[in-house]
Amino acid sequence: MVETTTVGPFSPSHAATTFAVPQFDNQNGTRRLLSVEMNLVLTSRGGATGLENEGPGTGSATVTIGTDVNVERDWENHGDGVWDVELSATESETNANVQADSDAAPDYLYPNDDDSVVVAGTTAQDEDSKTWTDPADILPFIGSGTVDIYYESFPNNSSDHTIGSGTVQTVTVQADSFTIDVTITYTYDVPELELVKGVIATNGSGTFTRKAGPVTFTAPGSAGVRFSGTISSTALDSRTVDANLLLAEPGDLVSFGIVIENVGGGTNGAYDVRVRDTIPNGMSIPPGGLNLTVTDGTGAAVAYTELGTGLFDSTGGIELTDPGPTSGSGAGGVLDVYHATSGRNVVVITYDLKVDSDIWKQTPQASVRKLIDTATVYNYAGYEGGTDLSVADLTDQAYVTLLQYHYDWWDRYEWGTWEEFKPAYAQAFAPLYSGTAEPGATLSVEIYDAQGNLIGSKAAVVDAGGNWLANFPDTAMTLQPHYVLLRQTYAGYSPLADAGYNLRTYYSRALLGGGTFVSEQLTVENVLARRSVGSLEALYAAGVSPITLGWHAFAYEMLCLPAVPGGY
């Protein structure tokens, strides 16, 4: 991040002096100054310069007017001959044909003297900059006041000069005045946290959407640190911890991981980090306990304080204790300043939850199709007790989907007792439908659950061979039966029909899940396709091409084969 301050323009005198620039406020260490850039623009303004020819012939002269300014932050070192910034703003102008000497005296009586002229004043600029990055050099710029910058310039010379006849002569004249514009740019960083959450392990047969993270995690219920190796910023860049779990079953244990990373700085890292989490409907803390661990990226334990009832308190959570595991001069906030490989700027929180054994009895069932767990970082600061730097809460989610069932739990009352029946399992699959239709047509495929809720929608374009496929990888089908609605948009005229091919449009399901029903929905097109003129055209076409296997008049027809519910 940068902060820019402009000073000037100011008009110093032709002498060694100073100008002041405001210091950088690090806000009690919240902001760490990384570099200081000082940009200077010198503008010199020259007054009129008189020239008198003391030679016997016509004279000519080039007048250069300007100012040289040398700038030094540390005045004690200015005598070493090396300045931080050296500026030279000059401008030249040539005046020819100054008449020969007329009075043998340099009396500069212009404009009433034939042998003298005046050269009008000129303006010139020069710009340069200096950047400091060494901590010792930038230290004087930190504070709440100002820091003096020293400069040195040359005194004015006489503005009138004599010249001789013949060749062009050069006259150098210092400017009458000059100004300096100064821009100070402070580059700094502050703690900047990133949050990511994922499923890291399970004892069930569910499938992960991707590798759980850059390291290997232990199984649910494992004691101690849940990973081996170091979770560093570099490791997270290559593989972060954001996997989800598909096809879990009731009773499965699932381990979640929360990773908080300081990708910024601050003088001593991030302080007062507060985080909370949720337990999704359909999951609970296992009988063996939450198995909560909090470490940095190296596996070193991080202390914490419970706020309210702890991690899952909707208004509380846990606060990570400052300082973190880093000791010595680098000790500060629980999360160190950014470091690519140390792992000390990373905190890892892990815990276990269980998929409820009676999850299919919970209502509403729509809420347990996808079990969503949300982590939140809602406070962090640049120093102990500092202002919250989280402009908006950081959140991330991980989810668990369930193995599909074909019917719910149900109870039977017999002989004075309730008997509970476990649901039947079905082969788990992401909804996938395919078939054949008019080449080039577009099919709109919608899936509805037993309550009529739309749970999936896709558009499928029929290929040149008449084949189509619609895949719904993110649709959780947990209630039966479903039904599928397809709408076909006719692709337009096809020249293949005139070649005698059978282009009768139809839909034939190649793959449907059990308990899914498909029905044809009438449209204006497929109704009008059966009008008399269409039938006559079809009869004529049949007579012309007796080898045609079907009437191409029914260009909008969809013939659906009913799906038989399965899994019972």
What are the defining features of this structure?
five-stranded mixed beta sheet, 41% strand, seven-stranded mixed beta sheet, 4 helices, Immunoglobulin-like, single chain, 568 residues, mainly beta
How much strand content do the residues show?
Answer: 35-45%
Low-confidence stretches: 405-416, 419-429, 499-522, 524-533, 546-568
- And the CATH topology of the largest domain? Immunoglobulin-like
> Please, how many helices?
4
The largest sheet, given as strand count, sense and whether it forms a barrel, is: 7 strands, mixed
What is the average per-residue confidence, as pLDDT, rounded to a whole number? 75
Spatial gap, N to C terminus: 63 Å
Number of strands: 32
Short overview:
The chain is mainly beta.
Give a structural overview:
The chain has about 575 residues and is mostly beta strands. The chain has helices spanning about 135-140, 235-240, 525-530, 530-545, and strands at about 1-10, 15-20, 30-45, 50-55, 60-70, 85-100, 115-120, 125-130, 145-155, 160-165, 170-175, 175-190, 195-200, 205-210, 245-250, 255-260, 270-275, 285, 295, 305, 315-320, 345-355, 370-380, 395-400, 410-415, 415-420, 430-435, 440-450, 455-460, 465-470, 480-490, 515-520. The chain has three domains: about 1-190, no CATH class; about 195-400, Immunoglobulin-like (Sandwich); about 430-545, no CATH class. A seven-stranded mixed beta sheet has the order 14-15-24-23-17-21-20, with no helix packed on it. Strands 2, 5, 6, 9 and 11 form a five-stranded mixed beta sheet that branches. Strands 13, 16, 18, 19 and 22 form a five-stranded antiparallel beta sheet that branches. The model is unreliable at about 405-415, about 420-430, about 500-520, about 525-535 and about 545-568 (pLDDT under 50).
